[in-house]
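Many introductory courses stop at the sequence. We go one step further.
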Amino acid sequence: MTTRAQIVACARTFLGTPFRHQGRLKGTSLDCIGLPICVGRELGLKIPDFAFVHNGQRINANSYAPYPTDDRVLQGMKRYLQEIPRDTIRPGDILCLRTPVPVHAGIVSDLPPGLGLIHSHEDAGKVVEHSLTPDWFYRIAGAFLFPEVED
């Protein structure tokens, strides 16, 4: 079984990877949903490429617009991950965040003195880690756990 600490350690190996829409390659290009996909796959978890269903049509995660305007990321996470209460988040969990609609993804980390967030952020131009500030916590639309993770 994979542990939460392994998820965080693996996610940190992606820090500095340049942001690129639909990127899926460590050190070269990654977008926000690509981070949990690539981390999960690198750890050998059974994680699909987060296919979405929109207007009754299956859309692969690599065929979405740069700026989605609906909740398909949130719905994909609900489909493939185990949803947990947002007030119980811990390092290794995956978040869906509103920007302003729920289209952004990140992995919770342990960043003293509290929780952190690792995500591929377009504004930063790369995968970054920073504190999970109240502003970011407020944006949480859903919290999730890889199904094959142990505490």
